[in-house]
Amino acid sequence: MDLLEIMANRRSIRKYTEEEIPEEKLQKILQAGLLSPTSRGKKPWEFFVIKDRELLQKLSKAKRHGSALLADCNTAIAVFADSDLSDAWIEDSSVALGYMYLMAEEQGVGSCWVQMRMRKDEDGNDAEQNVREILGVELPLRMVGIMALGMPAEEKEPYAADALNWEKVHR
């Protein structure tokens, strides 16, 4: 499969089987993140791999909407970055997440981005701060998002090439 096919096939998967993600697949996903480019080569990101069911359950309640799937995923990768090290920490972390998503697809692992930065929980508390407290992560590490991972329990159709929004391209 070429890269464009991987990109077309990559869909947000929110339902997972009980099957463990093989360690070699997880390692490749993490390697993809570590290979991602960063501004001025600063590599400000830090990847926290979470498999503990209790922590995943707590993380699933860290924000008001869209995080419940973390309770049922096999593994999550919380992506933080040192905001003192680089002013491009958000962009660098986003690129790393993108690389990991593509590798997850290539490895047959389902994935979904759970946005935490600039989100709130049910009580109006900052979701990023909630995650830092759950995982014991202190500033200057800032959070971009969490990547939920698991062996897919659902299938989605790939994006169709003829449905691409070419009107979004300006020359």
Molecular structure report:
- This protein is an alpha+beta fold.
- It has one domain (20-154): 3-Layer(aba) Sandwich (NADH Oxidase).
- It has five helices and four strands; from the N terminus they run H-H-E-H-E-H-E-H-E.
- A four-stranded antiparallel sheet has the order 1-2-4-3, with helices on both faces.
- Helix 2 runs antiparallel to helix 4.
- The longest helix is centred in the middle third of the chain and has 18 residues, at 89-106.
- The model has no long low-confidence stretch (mean pLDDT 97).
What's the CATH topology label? NADH Oxidase
Low-confidence stretches: none
CATH-scheme architecture: 3-Layer(aba) Sandwich
Percentage of residues in DSSP E strands: 15-25%
Main sheet summary:
4 strands, antiparallel
Q: Kindly state the mean pLDDT as a whole number?
A: 97
Q: Which overall shape is indicated by the principal axes computed on the Cα atoms?
A: globular
Can you tell me the number of structural domains? 1
Strand numbers in spatial order across the main sheet: 1-2-4-3
Nearest-angstrom radius of gyration?
16 Å
CATH superfamily heading = NADH Oxidase
Q: What order do the SSEs take from the amino end to the carboxyl end, as H and E?
A: HHEHEHEHE
Structural class: alpha+beta
Count of helical regions: 5
CATH class: Alpha Beta
Cα distance, first to last residue? 30 Å
Measured as a percent range, the helix fraction is 25-40%
Summarize the structure in short.
The protein has five helices and four strands.
